[in-house]
Amino acid sequence: MAEARKTKKTGGAGERAAAKTKRAAAKRMPPFPAERFAGTVKLDEPLARHTTFRIGGPAAVHFTPASAEAAAAAVTWAREHGVPWLVLGLGSNVLVRDGGFPGLVLKIGKGLDALSHRAETWKVGAGLPLPLLARRTAEAGFSGVQRLVGVPGTVGGGVFMNAGAHGQDFAAVLISATILTPEGEVADRPRKAIPFAYRRSGLDAHVVLGCALRLQKDAPERVTADLAMVLKKRREGTPFDQPCCGSVFKNPEEMTAGRLVDRCGLKGRRVGGAEISSLHANYIVNRGNASADDVLKLIDVARTAVFKEFGIELELEVKVLGEAK
């Protein structure tokens, strides 16, 4: 259980020394040239304000670009100066450690959230929330993404993770993705060139800035009814209105992760302010004062119990980012 062992080592002398070195490097980071890039800049911004878990230490620089060009320029600046950087959308599917992130956090949201269509082809900005995409397309009478209404993230994150729910995912409807390449170029990549798999796109080291989707024309009342049915199930079966990241573990082939954790009797188990949801065992919720360390310890409890009981190694779906405090 390699990843589980890493969790147990959190806070060790080696990791604290590495974190100290990174923080020292961040302090030597050159000032972010906000005047050069269109967008909104915040310094030492708590990432708990920008994640659905409501957990996370400060980002040295938090930048919301107003355009694809501004996003590309900011990433180019970070690379040229050796500044670490990462991308956030709505902050779902991530757990930011309590020490925060000692570099540039690129927030894909307003400015990159356009939505338009011609016939069955929809052009979508990466910053558009997935629930809004599901509702807008359903109301217009187009089927293909309405069942993603309960996925708490942005379109960019959805493409990057190949987000899916109830038999729908991005791999099935994507025509092309507009991406920022590791070389700092904005390019369009066709669907056939993207190696989609379960909850993976193969776009590692790339930033999704937008996409084109092919949806099917349908009766608006039928698509919106389907959306309402999915949303009702989501609200009844998951802690929809509590701070969480979404599913913590990927589903193994043998059985769903939630059922495995549930069969270990772990619903309601708490560590500090974090709790395995009593509604759905593949969700960990923030009861109000949870730290990232609380969540990581609870993840280790669940993984260890499932491995001991079933011999199954649960793989994380949530992405753990940042540094220990």
Describe the fold and architecture.
- The chain has 325 residues and is α+β, with helices and mostly antiparallel strands.
- It is 30% helix and 24% strand.
- The strands form six sheets. Strands 6-7-13-11-12 form a five-stranded antiparallel sheet.
- α1 (2-8) runs antiparallel to α8 (292-310) and α4 (130-139) packs antiparallel against α6.
Mean pLDDT: 90
Strands in their spatial order, largest beta sheet: 6-7-13-11-12
Our Rg estimate from Cα atoms comes to 20 Å
Order of helices and strands: HHEEHEEEEEHEHEEEEEEHHEEEHE
Number of domains: 3
Strand percentage: 15-25%
Q: How would a crystallographer describe the biggest sheet?
A: 5 strands, antiparallel
The gist of it:
It contains 8 helices and 18 strands. It is of the alpha+beta class. The relative contact order is 0.15.
Considering the chains and any ligands shown, give keywords for the structure.
325 residues, alpha+beta, Uridine Diphospho-n-acetylenolpyruvylglucosamine Reductase, domain 2, Uridine Diphospho-n-acetylenolpyruvylglucosamine Reductase, domain 3, Uridine Diphospho-n-acetylenolpyruvylglucosamine Reductase, domain 1, five-stranded antiparallel sheet, four-stranded mixed sheet, 8 helices, 18 strands, 30% helix, 24% strand, globular, disordered N terminus
Q: How is the secondary structure organized here?
A:
Elements: H1 2-8, H2 13-27, E1 39-46, E2 58-65, H3 68-80, E3 85-88, E4 94-96, E5 101-107, E6 115-118, E7 121-125, H4 130-139, E8 142-143, H5 155-161, E9 164-165, E10 168-169, E11 174-180, E12 186-190, E13 207-214, E14 216-217, H6 220-237, H7 257-263, E15 270-271, E16 274-276, E17 284-286, H8 292-310, E18 319-321
Parallel strand pairs: 2-5, 3-5, 4-18
Antiparallel strand pairs: 1-2, 6-7, 7-13, 8-14, 9-10, 11-12, 11-13, 15-16, 16-17
Helix pairs in contact: 1-8, 4-6
